[in-house]
Amino acid sequence: MRWPTLFVSHGSPMLAVEPGLTGPALAAWSQAQGRKPRAILVVSPHWMGHGLALSTRDQQVAWHDFGGFPPELYTLQYAAPGSPELAARTQALLAEAGIAADRDPRRPLDHGAWVPLRYLYPEVDVPVVQLSLDMGRDAAGQLELGRALAPLRDEDVLIIGSGSLTHNLRDVRMPQNAPATPYVPAFQDWYARHLAAHDVPALLDWQARAPGARQAHPHDDHLMPLYVALGAGGEQATRLNDEVSYGALAMDAYAFH
Question: Prior bond to 218 cis, omega within 30?
Fold first, then answer.
């Protein structure tokens, strides 16, 4: 079986204790697959740099890379196995495409990785490798990267891009179910339509074409993992979730086949 790829919006770290509609949607998708992948490769904007790096830990730990949240959040763990084997295979695959990637034996899982994984694979029994986000790549560059990673899908590996479909923290409002800021549903709808049509030229030109693009993403880091998942996944997009959290964080999730 060839695995689809996932784009998940991880929103606030509070997703770990406030599942809303997103947690059940991710859990339902995982259960519907009927089996687990051999390993997971996840890209998150909370590990960014110039160029790429892969975590090579034998044993993963959850990094609580945030501050000012309730104490219960800092007690949560996600001690999945690591996979130096998958890290080496990914590095070799990227090298074949002319893309360099370093190895990092110390890097733990940031919350963009471990928070959604708690809903996808709560048994914590699937090995996880994290790939950093190359901040020098635009949408087209991330799509190219995803295409280079695509062979992993035939090797029983699930590729996940974790980010947020909208991410403007200045517009965040309490409580979790606060009404959506007007640009958020417009941005969600634009992506839903163009992903369904597999309109790659429009998707790559999102900053000029998507309504409210500058408001939705003052910085593009949380959107770029979508393009990695899209490049690795294929033409068919299935929308798994369309929740809006705290008025400004679109929690859309997509599976790409």
Answer: no
